[in-house]
Amino acid sequence: MHAVMLVALLAAALAVPMSDKPGKGGTAAAAQTEQVQEKVVYHINDASNARIAMRNIENHLSASPGAKIVVVTHGKGIDFLLNDAKDDKGAFQGQVAGLKSQGVDFRVCRNTLKGRNLTDDAVILEGTVVPSGVAEIGKLQAREGFVYLKP
User: Fold this and answer.
1) Domain ranges of the chain
2) What does the alpha-carbon distance between residue 127 and residue 80 come to, in Å, rounded to a whole number?
3) pTM for the full model?
4) Closest CA to 79 of 114, 135, 13, 123
5) What gap in Å lies between CA 14 and CA 114, rounded to an integer?
6) Predicted confidence (pLDDT) per residue in 13-43, tens digit
7) CATH class of 38-149
8) In angstroms, rounded to a whole number, what is the distance separating the alpha carbons of residues 46 and 31?
């Protein structure tokens, strides 16, 4: 009887790939990590950082084309997502539209809009208005597994 149990245990041990066994390389763990989508929330609360942030996002997508990226803005950070927004390099909408076409979501804080007596119509087409920018960041991190980046 003991021989049968020993054979069964040996067969079970051999059925587990070596990479899944402790101290044997961990390639199964790496494969599992590769299957999990990279999710990142970029936090912008000052539009003077918007160009830098969007350049970071372009570089991020070049390195990780399948990454899910959400940009959350509030306070002065919403300014680049308002209609006709521009800086010394020109309008923001073209760069925003390019990133949107690559799957990047842009979210704008409604609390900030209300505080400035603006309606949702003040936001460019590529932007989505959310109730609260900071609450959106918290939700993405706590409930949806996004990592936080602040350019």
Assistant:
1) 1-36, 38-149
2) 10
3) 0.78
4) 123
5) 63
6) 444 454 444 555 555 555 555 578 999 999 9
7) alpha beta
8) 38
